[in-house]
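Run: sequence + magnesium ion -> complex structure.
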Amino acid sequence: MHLTILKSTIRPNRGRNQKGRARRAYQTGEGLQGLGPVKIPAGHPPTAFKPATPPLILAIMSQTHPCQDERDFVRWLQARCRKTARAGETQPQSALMPGTGCRVEIPIGDDMGGLAIGGDQILVTADMLLDGIHFDLAEHSPAAIGRKAAACSLSDCAAMAVCPRGAIVSLALPDRFSVDDAKAIMEGVIDMCGRFDCVLMGGDTTRWKHPLVVDVAMVACPYPGIGPVRRDGAQAGDRILTTGRLGGSIRGHHLSFTPRVHEAHRIAAALGENLHAMMDISDGLAIDLDRMLEASGKGAILDRDAVLAVASDAANEISRNDEDLIRHVLSDGEDYELLLTAKLTDEEAESLGLIAVGTIDEGEGMRLRDSQGHETKIEPVGWQHF
Ligand SMILES: [Mg+2]
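>> structure
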């Protein structure tokens, strides 16, 4: 979907009028005149399905931001953090902490960052959820929002097959929010964390005139006998698998999913060194698989029939035809299933509850192959954070 907007409206932080104008344009489908097309992200966090919600605003902001999208920003950060004090010199991040007893084991770009401190390894992630983007306070209870906020960070722990152990929760509360509402959010956080033996360690609370923000940072340690599973190890010939069906999470899954922490441990223990790469699907199969392929320096073929078969019931309900269904499977956000590549048999996949959707190869990008062998290019569509 493309809209045209006025150049004069593109001023970050000039607020409401432009946002209101953009919303009206989005609602009416008219667009505004003057500037080239603005691409609306095909994927969605849940509330983006409603016409008046922020994807368009994000699209407008992205026009003025120096980074084209989140991936550019991450690439910049990766390069920036490899720079040493001496101008122009770059090194691996792991080499940058001499004399500290610490080493960066998993640098920027994976589901969690990893630090080796002495002989121990700790992993950390953070996930920030915003009212109007990731949940809707008008529809969702504070406890459900707290559970989801914790589950998103737990899902990052699942992505690396590590053990979540501590959560640090920061809340930006709207002025009208009561202490009881804040307690209800934290009850949700504590409930979800408790299911995975993860304790609340602290956080920060503040109040402002704007919508609710919930940020959950999480500390984890490796699962005994299993190193953290990274996303950059996919090998040609690996099968591409998921732990569940995809698409249509807007229908409710996004708020009620169970992070695949236990499944991740089971899969990693069963497959051992044959498990080559893993991450969670938070922004959409296509964009998340593309991130894995970029990290691994590989390409992928997805099987069209398998992509149709992996569609959730909700995705089937909201799709008009097969093409629409494929679009939902590839680009809908917030599935929170695991995406992994491994060498394994059909029997192993079945016993672990894994669904195969394609194969890693040395080709360029992602391609969808039909039963006649025809291939079409898949764009990395999904939710763009910027
Ligand atoms: Mg993730």
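>> summary
Residues 1-43, 46-67 have pLDDT under 50 and may be disordered. The radius of gyration is 21 Å.
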